[in-house]
Amino acid sequence: MATIEKDSVSGQNTTGHEWDGIKELNTPLPKWWVYVFWATVLWAIGYWVAYPAWPLVNGYTKGTFGYSSRGELENELAAQKKARSAWLSKIEASDVGAIEKDKDLLRYAMAGGKIAFNENCAPCHGVGGVGAFGYPSLADDEWLWGGELADIETSVKFGVRNTNANARASEMPKFGADGLLKPEQITAVTDYVLSLASKAPAKGSAGETVYAENCAACHADDGAGNKDLGAPALNNQIWLYKGSKDAVAAQIAKPKHGAMPAWSERLDASTVKMLAVYVHNLGGGK
Hints:
The chain is mainly alpha-helical. It has 11 helices and 4 strands; from the N terminus they run ββαββαααααααααα. It has helices spanning 31-50, 69-93, 96-101, 103-120, 122-125, 149-158, 183-197, 206-214, 216-219, 245-253, 269-280, and strands at residues 14-19, 22-25, 55-56, 59-60. The protein is elongated. The relative contact order is 0.13. The model has no long low-confidence stretch (mean pLDDT 92).
């Protein structure tokens, strides 16, 4: 039987265990630590009772307080929606022109439009509407379908080349792929288009003749474009698919056609209006 005795060096009782002449001291935990430990145990039990804690087969224990983080979030969103409803109702009841004329509504629409733009439009058009390869810039003064506020709202609402019956639609012929022009004609008209872009049209060239017969109807004689048809201007250095000779020739031979969703099918009316106002105020709206 183990013998408990007092250690002569430390003055503490031993446990009675001894190994190779080494005696184990009985050193209990400090009482304050024990009290804290049991307090945390009691706290944990109380937490299990008061709050959701234990998973069950078809759910979980709800707790006596009936609290849930999801419910708290839903309450916060409901409160936020209520606070925003007055502004959104005004925006929904106003046309985009009236929104821009009302300083308070404009401020709110710009804030809401920026959020909606970053969530839905920036992946293609870039933050701030700077554009990207194949996606037009929205921060300059060049518009395929017009830069007036009403034009922008229509583009946002119905989109481009999608299944919506009111979508913007245009299609450039495949002059090379469909054999409408010979390779040498494509080369000639490419050179002429590049001369238009550099503000030095190659008058009297073979390319000018090909352009007049095949391109001017949509892009205008001087390359100014036609916003009613969604035909881009060719008399500047703004290119959707790059402006090298090879890139322009490839677009003439077998053009690329982008598409844009009809945001009225995905977003509510007030958000569409805020988007239109935001884009119009990026710096390129007329």
